[in-house]
Amino acid sequence: MSSIKPSEFRYDSMRYNRCGKSGLKLPAISLGLWHNWGDVDDFENGRAMLHRAFDLGITHFDLANNYGPPSGSAERNFGRVLSRDLAAYRDELVISTKAGWDMWPGPYGNFGSRKYLVASLNQSLKRMGLDYVDIFYHHRPDPETPLEETMGALDYIVRSGKALYVGISQYNPEQTRQAAQILRDLGTPCLLHQLNYNLLDRWIEAELFKTMAHEGIGCIVFSPLAQGLLSDKYLNEIPTDSRAAKKHGFLQRSDITKEKLARVRSLNEVANERGQSLAQMAIAWVLRKSNVTSALLGASRVSQIEAVVAVLAQPEFTNEELKLIDDILAEGNYE
Ligand SMILES: NC(=O)c1ccc[n+]([C@@H]2O[C@H](COP(=O)([O-])OP(=O)(O)OC[C@H]3O[C@@H](n4cnc5c(N)ncnc54)[C@H](OP(=O)(O)O)[C@@H]3O)[C@@H](O)[C@H]2O)c1
Fold first, then answer.
1. Residues with CB under 6 A from ligand 1
2. 16-253+279-316, which class in CATH?
3. Which stretches of the chain are assigned E, i.e. beta strand?
4. What is the C-alpha to C-alpha distance for residues 302 and 310, in angstroms, rounded to an integer?
5. CA 239 – ligand 1 centroid, Å
6. Best substitution site from 227, 256, 277 to test ligand 1's pocket, by max atoms within 8 Å of Cβ?
């Protein structure tokens, strides 16, 4: 049973947004466990971040079978915190996991077959010590498996009680429409789409926002800080404790180009003018869109979560500020 007593004020400042046309609400800011919860990381730091996040009203924690490293370890470490500290609060939490990327060797350990998805979720539940997850996602489109099979597996998973809702990730507009239609026909609506979206990566604005709204699907955006690039940390150097400096970090030193830094510098000035850090402005910027149900943040320390949640109490953008940001983003080619 629980060994922590969460803050009694935990629901006072967070905003909760309805997920598409469903009955489920998600916090405007959710926490993802892709980095910083593996066996290579400090367990007590991850534990402290989960406690603080819950105290700040972050009710949604996002995982995947392959988060770590090694793969599976983030789910195992999350399960340890859950059973030690948060078990009594299970019904106040929305926990998601996914399958789609490489997980185990052989032909059944990746992509989108029914064989893989059902087996992977069974493994995830065991690692986290859960009977069910709230949301189970197909993590990436599979070019070979018929969509009917993948969506049929998601429907089966809900009917078997192992997930309450299902979602998709990284599907293009046409794949999204087809998946939504199949799931609707099966009687298990698609709850949520998980997509990359941030100041440096606006691809979903072209069509997907409209597609999701039309289909009644919620939208949770990952890497809202471009893995930390949208902060002031890389402006002068690559700090030794940053994601880009870590061997297992997904952000590579080579991703931090001079061109991107020039843009980040200009954005940083706008943020400072607004009395915010760039990280705060980047979160506020994705949340300016009513299509965005939740910004899915990653964090390496408690103070980062606190800083980002503080955004919800800060002023909205003026039209002039949004125009200035658009102009900065439109300048030259920054790839
Ligand atoms: N569906 C998919 O395919 C997919 C793909 C990627 C991610 N995701 C999900 O999205 C989640 C978030 O992704 P992400 O970790 O790339 O998100 P992100 O929020 O863009 O980046 C997180 C990193 O930004 C830095 N940061 C966070 N708050 C900060 C602050 N207040 N000030 C300065 N720096 C700050 C930290 O970097 P340092 O570590 O350098 O301190 C942190 O590790 C993942 O955990 C996962 O759940 C899904």
1. 32-35, 62, 139, 169-170, 194, 222-228, 231, 233, 242-243, 279, 296-300, 304, 307-308
2. alpha beta
3. 16-18, 25-27, 29-32, 60-62, 94-99, 133-138, 163-169, 190-196, 218-222, 294-297
4. 13
5. 16
6. 227
Distance 223 CA to ligand 1 centre (A): 5
Alpha-carbon distance 261 to 334, whole Å?
Answer: 9
Mean per-residue pLDDT pooled into runs of 10, the chain (335 residues): 84 97 98 98 98 98 98 98 97 98 97 98 98 98 98 98 98 98 98 98 96 98 98 95 93 93 97 97 97 98 98 96 96 57
pLDDT at 4: 86
Helices 43-55 and 302-309, interaxial angle, to 10°? 20
CB 176 within 8 A of CB 217: yes
Rounded Cα gap, residues 260 and 237, in angstroms: 14
In sign, the C-alpha dihedral spanning 8, 59, 290, 326 is positive
Pocket test residue of 35, 67, 204, 283 for ligand 1, highest count of atoms within 8 A of CB: 35
Q: How far apart are CA 138 and CA 254, in angstroms?
A: 29
pLDDT of residue 331: 81
- First CA to last CA across the chain, in angstroms? 50
Q: Compute the distance from residue 31 Cα to the ligand 1 centre, in Å.
A: 9
Check if the beta carbon of residue 250 is closer than 8 Å to that of residue 322: no
Paired with 16 in beta bridges are: 27
Q: Kindly report the protein residue whose alpha carbon is nearest to atom 12 of ligand 1.
A: 298
Q: How far is the CA of 255 from the centre of ligand 1 (A)?
A: 15
Distance CA 70, CA 72 (A): 6
For ligand 1, atom 22, the nearest C-alpha belongs to 298
| pTM for the full predicted model | 0.97
